[in-house]
Amino acid sequence: MGLLLRGTVLFMIGNFFAVFMNLLQINRQGNVSLKMPPELLENLFLKEWWVPPMCGAAAVLIGLLYPCLDRHLSISNPDSHKGEWSKVMRCIAVFVGINHASAKLDFVNNMQLSMTLAAMSIGLWWLFDRSPCGFGLGVGIAVLATLVTQLLVYNGVYNYSKAEFLFVRSWLPCIFFSGGVTMGNIGRQLALYDESPASPTKPKTD
């Protein structure tokens, strides 16, 4: 498929997920309705316009990094990643479900929310990855992305209301972890199109 084409596909997917997740969180905060008023489009494309491209760039990095480390570290069984697109789509569906849970479900406290989303995120990794490399990268992505996000919030670049600051921080690592695993699976599946033509054909013997 080519490195450039893979990066383009991952960038577009990352942009789509960023807009979709923002829609869920805006609806959670009750700032807009589901009827797509002008305020919603303004919220998505004028305020924090740089968020989707940044998420797209992160998706490119993660989606290219996962198959690269699979090849060089040889930590996991390569055959376990040669799944079908149906498996990748199921992984995406679970990831969307985790985002939906963070935006729609009401919990007694932040600890209950964090524990529930953490269990769902680890379940996503167990169902669709199970590699130590994938788990380690997911944790690293969650820690780094959460730190960057909170620094942006602290400096006023990205804004949440003060009352929801601890709430937002509680679910962010789980979303970033499950998102990293999901983009890693997409990147692995796309990488198969590069690996298959490159494999040499063995000469037939009588």
Write the layout of secondary structure elements.
Elements: H1 3-29, H2 38-45, H3 51-73, H4 85-104, H5 110-128, H6 132-154, H7 165-198
Pfam families: INSIG (PF07281)
Subcellular location: Endoplasmic reticulum membrane
InterPro entries: INSIG_fam
Explained architecture:
The chain contains seven helices and no strands. It has 206 residues and is mainly alpha-helical. Helix 1 crosses helix 3, helix 3 crosses helix 7 and helix 4 runs antiparallel to helix 5. The C terminus is likely disordered. Its main location: endoplasmic reticulum. One of its GO terms (cellular component) is SREBP-SCAP-Insig complex.
Major pleated sheet: none
| Helix count, DSSP H or I runs of 4 or more residues | 7
Rg calculated over all Cα atoms: 19 Å
Mean pLDDT: 76
Whole-Å distance between the termini? 33 Å
Q: Number of DSSP strands? A: 0
Contiguous uncertain segments of 5+ residues: 30-41, 76-81, 161-165, 197-206
Structural class: mainly alpha
Shape: globular
Percent helix, as a range, is over 70%
Number of domains: 1
Strand content: under 5%
Q: Give, in order, the helices and strands.
A: HHHHHHH
Protein name: Insulin-induced gene protein
Keywords: Cholesterol metabolism, Endoplasmic reticulum, Lipid metabolism, Membrane, Steroid metabolism, Sterol metabolism, Transmembrane, Transmembrane helix
Subcellular location: Endoplasmic reticulum membrane
Membrane topology: Multi-pass membrane protein
